[in-house]
Specification:
Elements lengths: L3 E5 L2 E6 L4 E6 L15 E2 L5 H15 L1
Antiparallel strand pairs: 1-2, 2-3, 3-4
Length: 64
Amino acid sequence: MPSMVQEFKGYRSAIYSPNSHFAVVTPPGSNNVIRFDSEKPTSTVVKGPLICVERAKALIEKLA
């Protein structure tokens, strides 16, 4: 289960936090996960999940 789900410009980002934080991003109207090969939205536990959310938003900005 995701620890946090947010919507930004129609895209949804779900934050998962097992040992560190990582985000999966889905496009509007779909449940397919967008693969960001070299730019995965992640953050350490120390930095927190909100940094991961900001990184996911930055990648969505590049898509939109």
